[in-house]
Amino acid sequence: MATTTKITFASLLAMVQTTADAVTKTIGVAADGVDMLSNTVESMKKKQDHENFVDLAFHNNQYTIAAAKADNDFNLSIQEYRMKSKAHADGFDASLKSIQDALAARQKAA
Fold this sequence. Notes:
By secondary structure, the chain is an all-alpha fold. It is built from two helices and no strands. It has one domain. The longest helix has 81 residues.
C-alpha cells in the first residue's frame, strides 16, 4: 500500500507540475498578447500624431493663403473706390479718420 500511495502521490505531483506549466504558458501567451496590443496602440498613436501635425500644417498654410488673398482683395477694392473721384477719396479718408479716432478714444477710456 505504501508503494501505491507513493505512485499516486507522484502522479498527483506530476499533474500539479503539468497544470503549473500550462498556467505559466497561458500567462506567457497573455503577456505576449498584451505586448502586441500595446505595440499596436503605440504605433496607431504615432500615426495619428503625424497625421494631426500634417493636417494642422496644411490648414495653417491654406488659411494663411486665404487670409492674404482676402486682405489683398479688400485693399484693391479700397484703392478702386478711392480712385473713382477726389470726393470718394476725401470722403473715405474722413470716414476712416473718424472711425479710428472713435476707436482710439474708446481704448483710451477702457
